[in-house]
Amino acid sequence: MWxxxxxxxxxxxxxxxxxxxxxxxxxxxxSPLSSxxxxxxxxxxxxxxxxxxxxxxxxxxxxLHEEDCRELRPDTxxxxxxxxxxxxxxxxxxxxxxxxxxLYAGDSCSRSREALSQSLRFLDSLxxxxxxxxxxxxxxxxxLGVIAPKDGHSSALLGRVVGKAALPVASYSLSSSTVxxxxxxxxxxxxxxxxxxxxxxxxxxxxxxxSNLVILVDxxxxxxxxxxxxxxxxxxxxxxxxxISINSPLFIQTVTNSEATIVLSLLSxxxxxxLTVHSLVSSMDKLWLSLPLDGEALPDxxxxxxxxxxxxxxxxxxxxxxxxxxxxxxxxxxxxxxNYQSYSLLTSYVNQxxxxxxxxxxxxxxxxxxxxxxxxxxxxxxxxAYAFSTLGAVISADPKKMKICEHADPECTSLLLSxxxxxxxxxxxxxxxxxxxQSLHFYRGKDGVLVASGMVIEAIEVxxxxxxxxxxxxxxxxxTGKKPSIVIASLRPQTARIRSICMPHRPFCGVxxxxxxxxxxxxxxxxxxxYPVYLSALFSLHSGxxxxxxxxxxxxxPMAFIHTVWTFKQRFPQLNLLKNLEFGxxxxxxxxxxxxxxxxxxxxxxxxxxxxxxxxxxTIVPKSIFGYVSALEGDAQQALRGYFASSDTDVxxxxxxxxxxxxxxxxxxxxxxxxxxxxxLRLLSRMNWEFVTVALSENDSASLSIFRHFERLAxxxxxxxxxxxxLSGDSPPAPISNTNVTIVFATAxxxxxxxxxxxxxxxxxxxxxxxxxxHVEADRSKYVGTVSIxxxxxxxxxxxxxxxxxxxxxxxxMWFWSFIEDRYQCAxxxxxKIIYGKMCTGDELLDVPKLGRMTRAGYLSRGxxxxxxxxxxxxxKLCPTQSGFCPEFYSSGRKAISEQLxxxxxxxxxxxxxxxxxxxxxxxxxxxxxxxxxxxxxMTALYKPFGRSSPxxxxxxxxxxxxxxEGNFFQRPLDAFVQSGVVERDSSxxxxxxxxxxxxxxxxxxxEHLSTGEWRAHPHNFVLLAVISLLTISALAVLxxxxxxxxxxxxxxxxxxxxxxxxxxxxxxxxxYFFVFDATDMVCRARVILHGLAYxxxxxxxIAKGTQLRNAETLYSATNVHISFWNYxxxxxxxxxxxxxxxxxxxxxxxxxxxxxxxNSTKMVCSYGRVEFVLSNAYAIxxxxxxxxxxxxxxxxxxxxxxxxxxCVSSMICAFIWLLWIAAYFSVPYEWKESVIALELLxxxxxxxxxxxGPKIYILLSYEPVVVEYKVDYNAPQGPKLELFENEEERNSxxxxxxPASSTGSWDKSSARGTGSISGSTSSRGxxxxxxxxxxxxxxxxxxSPIFHTVMRKKKAVRRTHSEHDSRKNVIHPRPxxxxxxxxxxxxxVDRMRSPVMMSNx
Length: 1402
Known about the structure:
Elements: E1 3-6, E2 47-50, E3 56-62, H1 74-91, E4 101-107, H2 112-125, E5 142-147, H3 152-162, E6 169-171, H4 174-180, E7 188-190, H5 195-208, E8 213-218, H6 223-235, E9 239-245, H7 251-257, E10 262-267, H8 269-276, H9 279-282, E11 287-292, H10 300-303, E12 314-320, H11 326-339, H12 344-353, H13 365-371, H14 378-396, H15 399-404, H16 410-421, E13 425-426, E14 439-440, E15 442-444, E16 450-452, E17 456-464, E18 470-479, E19 485-488, E20 515-517, E21 523-526, E22 533-539, H17 556-571, E23 583-589, H18 594-606, E24 608-613, E25 616-620, E26 625-630, H19 634-645, E27 652-655, E28 667-668, H20 673-686, E29 691-696, H21 701-713, E30 720-726, E31 741-745, H22 748-756, E32 762-766, E33 787-791, H23 797-805, H24 814-824, H25 830-836, H26 855-878, H27 887-902, E34 910-917, E35 923-932, E36 936-939, H28 975-980, H29 1006-1012, H30 1019-1047, H31 1056-1074, H32 1081-1114, H33 1125-1148, E37 1153-1158, E38 1161-1166, H34 1170-1176, H35 1178-1193, H36 1199-1227, H37 1233-1262, E39 1263-1269, H38 1288-1291, H39 1307-1319, H40 1321-1327, E40 1348-1354, ...
Parallel strand pairs: 3-4, 3-5, 5-6, 6-7, 7-16, 8-9, 8-10, 10-11, 11-12, 20-24, 22-23, 22-26, 26-27, 27-28, 29-30, 29-31, 31-32, 32-33
Antiparallel strand pairs: 1-2, 2-4, 12-17, 13-14, 15-16, 17-18, 18-19, 21-23, 24-25, 33-34, 34-35, 35-36, 37-38, 39-40
Helix pairs in contact: 1-14, 2-3, 3-4, 5-6, 17-26, 18-19, 20-21, 26-27, 30-31, 30-37, 31-32, 31-37, 32-33, 32-35, 32-36, 35-36, 36-37, 39-40
């Protein structure tokens, strides 16, 4: 029999006993207690469960009341009764007779101090607080553990006191386990999922959603909890974009604007319910992942109300599964119904829950069940009771363990925790039926807490569908354990998922373990917030050693930067640029220091740095800057160019620097200094100003760079520099120049000072000197006639309008405020008020006219646009969906943007102005001309010098000018003609000067051309040189072979046409060399002249040969009818003469080469264009068509061993090659057009050499003549058979006309001499009968028949001259003593082919 003592309540009415007859358990006895309505002290009397033979004891404080100790907490009452109910099941089991467990429960009234007091009273009741030396007897029951209060603040105090005593502390609520895990988690036992378990479930959910970026929202009450959660998420690879409390005034704005689309909240159920119904929260397009801070599951009725209608927010509830316990409910209600009138605790419960008094309370079973609400911690409390019960059973079964745990000490605590970690208990039929079959064991969680297994956590998604219906979707079930059991439901469709991915180069994505703090006075983000990527611009906003001087600040440059970035998408709306992209504009003040500029770039590329702006910290991650913009000058800009030209970085640099020569250094839309210098030289040449003075500001880097190029190019353009005047001093120089023209390379201020000195000359303003009038206060009309040469004005009109209206009120940028403060000497912030003493109004405007022409600002804006266009192209290529930055863009986008930007076009338009009075009488600049590399110099108006009636000239006259006395006539013979070609006219300003593209370009020597030419930069040129050389040597070898054979008289006849064709082929090969090397004046002339001349020779010979063979075929009626060979030579000379006449035009051209300024480099090019070059070969095209026509008509003529067939094939292939190369010539890029021509020359020449000379060279090299005895066959029907090769072509033609160039035509004399030396006069007489006497069908007489004749046989082979049938009759008798006959009798095979190699005209 066991007794239960209840000493709780305010009434204190003594009771003898209470019979719970309706309980399924045996009756319990309640000890009497005293009560008084006014005595609240009695609430602290403990509730004890003391069974008979009680071996073990657990206990602690429970918040039964609120802090006023009057209002009851019904859920705590249920939890105490649940523990008592579980212990009743355990203690009534006969198997647990030696392991009975008692309970001590003291009310804390939800106060931390009272909770600690009740816990200490419990420990003192077991003798724990007694000194060790005073323990002379065993305690009534052994202490197994202390139950922590379920409210967090009470558990926090208990943990700090009891935690150091090394006692097992058990918790059945998330609030208490959370705070206790911060103290001594190794001694903590939790029968409810800890916060680390909930975070683990959230990590599993994020993995299912394929997301790794969240916004962490908390209540701001537990900073340590937030740190632990953050650390666990970081270890799992989950990144936190924002961490904010719901109490922050920027909460809604921060969550809405965050890049993360998943919110992870650490809030209680009530806080979550009140937050999600907020209109601004429910309208977010995000997923809200909720972790219950109180560990309670949201009831079903509250789940349906968590999202209002038309909500776009999705909520994912991660909460414990709530298990109904019907048997406990029935037990509790029976106890309540039978005893509420006897116990003040139950009376208070009935009064509070059922709203009835002790005198009038009709508790019906149905009403009690309807109003019954099971506590959310009931199941955890029951598990806690069974955990200690089973632990007591394990200890009681071993006497040694009982001995160790006789008193509570660290050794016993270690034993208890060790046994609990290996505990395995399965609920049986003697236990509560709701737990039947379940198992109970513990494992160490990630936070070191012993956590009960078998607890189920669910992830339930709640959202509104298209029909605005509330939809619940269970995504995951997580069962706690050392190896947790996870059940994952099938995912929703892809379109319904919300993903949140942490992109690279984000400061919260784990790439910034160390952050460097930088000055917020030098780094500024326009529209300050965190961006995925940035465009960084470097400016010299301040200068001086202390970086406080803004005297020289050009405010138009940073204004152009932010205006371009802001308006880029709106300026080109039809292009849909940078869709769904957002990037930050970062401005950096380098204080005009190259060192600081380099430090800034290197820091941005290698370190994370952070600065504060607009009450937020902005962190820039390495490699997150996709492009740099530089408005620096001088050494600072030069240092940057050197860094970006190296391989240290792959990002693009945009500048407004005229000195950019290498596209790898920087991209500058501003016309280069060389281009501006060329424009100046063109104007000087046009105006006949060849003797000039230069006024230079040596401290101005932009002016100095243009001057250096001008100084280098001036001598080649016939311009002589008289002197260079330095304008960097404080006082203007005296007018000592003897020239009539002065070019001013200076700042506007220096130029104004120089003009004020009274120099009566023509002044040409270059660069910033254009704005000299801004520093002139006197009459500006006296400067009429001043010329200015400037890059084309490309500043947008809306940019000027914006500058005129912008003020500190509508542009709250700190760098802009600093400029306004410096200009107006007033303060825009309280910090600056100390310096200036007065406040600005905020309406201060910029003095836009004082900003001048803003040339650099316009071209800086153009360069930024080029960069953004390149970024858009790469973005569309790497991220086709255009839904935002993709991983491919982060990994390779910067390099791709840089390469794309290098191919962007570069401006080269330069405009020329004259300072003159307008219609309103006010002087101003007026456009008079322009220059570009493509169109050259174009004057739109005549220059009219002020106060002069005649044109202004400035000539270089020796001995005052010695610039051209040392010129080399042999290197530049045409210079004299250029100087003399200027037509002087007193009444006209028009000068006959070569336009752009007519400069003679020469190297110092041929060796320099071959060793330092730009052709060496292209590897394919070396391949072309090797091929050309090889083929040229082959053609020369053929020519030498033919000449040798002619000398040895192996080849007979007139071979002039064949040799001419070989010369033409060699000329084609040689011409190809000129299309490989750089285009100097000599090379350009050779290209355009030799190309047509070589083809004219080749095609002319083909026409002459075709005509010759056609005449030989048709004129066959007479025996010796032929056309004189000189007729064909006259035809060839006429064809060749026409081409020479056409080429005279190119030989007489004064200039055929010039400088081409392409982008950032200068290259020598020929001054004629593609169309001109093709038209120069029009005559060759006509000859090719004529040769194709003639040879196609002659293709069936078999004369001369079917040579017409090879002529026809060669003509057709050459025609096809010409069609191909002309088409390719107009379509390939400019740098490949010379290579196309070289390939065309090689192919055509090789075709002619192979088809027209290949067969003949083969016969010439493969056969040799041999003298043999001739045997006459008189029985032959057509006379003796004299031919050895291709007789069929002669048998049907008894009388044929013979070409005068044929070797048969020259046979009669040589043949007679050859045979006469052997056979005497008879053979000579026979020979004089003519070469065709054998073909006439007459039989030769004995005295007319030859004794020997020459036959051709293959070298190194035994060849039979007759058939095997009469080999015995006609035996060849070699005659070694007889010399080889070089001409054959009648007609040998050598003559049959008109000499084996060259045939008729070779």
